[in-house]
Structure formats: C-alpha cells, structure tokens
C-alpha cells in the first residue's frame, strides 16, 4: 500500500529490498620476486590478518600459485587491489592482486 499518500485511491505492490551485495574475493598471485616479508606485511596491514594467519596465507600462495587475502563488497575490494598494487610498485615488486566475484 502507498502509506506515503493516504488519500490515494491506488494501491502499489511493493517488495522490500533485502538483497545482500555481491561479494568479491581479493586474490594474491604468486611470483618469483616479491619478498615473502612484503606479502606478510600486505596481509597484516591491508587485510588485517594476524602474524600467524598472514604467514600461513603467504606460504599457501607461494606453494599453490594463488590464495584469498579477503572477501569484501566491490568498492572495498577494488580499493584494496589499487592500494596494494601501488604499494608493491612503489617498492619495485611485481606482486599481482586481483578481485573476482564470488560465485
Ligand atoms: N614466491 C615469492 C618468493 O619466493 C613469495 C611470494 C608469495 C610472492 C606470495 C608473491 O603473492 C605472493 N619470494
């Protein structure tokens, strides 16, 4: 019903919007040149991982080729990709970071 217009003779069918936003994985990709300590620092500073979790994730990326640093809404994920990429390039490291939608 159109609660905002009590004198209206019309009725509007409404559906409350309760959609969750799509979530995006931020992935770290392995390479041969970025120092392990830099990747651990990135996971700690930008993805708020504990020292132990940062080490575990970094080693998993090193061994398997890629891994999830965190899961966020689109704008937050894209901002983290841009920030981490800029930081890595400023240090001369080729670290690749990408965002992909969760299935
Ligand atoms: N393979 C790198 C090395 O041996 C470490 C590394 C880990 C690089 C994870 C990138 O996303 C990465 N120094």
From TrEMBL:
Family matches, as Gene3D superfamilies: 3.30.1390.10
GO biological process: proteolysis
Sequence ranges assigned to domain Adaptor protein ClpS core in this UniProt record: 20-97
SUPFAM superfamilies, A to Z: ClpS-like
Family: Belongs to the ClpS family.
Comp. bias (Polar residues): 2-16
Role: Involved in the modulation of the specificity of the ClpAP-mediated ATP-dependent protein degradation.
PANTHER family attached to this UniProt entry: ATP-DEPENDENT CLP PROTEASE ADAPTER PROTEIN CLPS, ATP-DEPENDENT CLP PROTEASE ADAPTER PROTEIN CLPS1, CHLOROPLASTIC
GO molecular function terms attached to this record: peptidase activity
Protein name: ATP-dependent Clp protease adapter protein ClpS
Endpoints of the signal sequence: none
A matching Pfam family: ClpS
Keywords of this entry: Hydrolase, Protease
Species whose genome carries this gene: Deinococcus rubellus
Subunit structure: Binds to the N-terminal domain of the chaperone ClpA.
Top-rank lineage group of the source organism: Bacteria
């Amino acid at each position: 019903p159109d609660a905002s217009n009590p004198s209206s003779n019309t009725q509007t069918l409404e559906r409350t919007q309760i959609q969750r936003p799509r979530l995006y994985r931020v992935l770290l990709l392995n390479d041969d040149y970025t120092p392990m300590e830099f990747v651990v620092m990135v996971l700690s500073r930008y993805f708020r991982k504990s020292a132990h979790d940062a080490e575990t994730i970094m080693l998993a990326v090193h061994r398997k080729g890629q891994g999830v640093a965190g899961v966020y809404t689109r704008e937050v994920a894209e901002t983290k990709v841009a920030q981490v990429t800029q930081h890595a390039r400023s240090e001369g490291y080729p670290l690749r970071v990408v965002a992909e939608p969760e299935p």
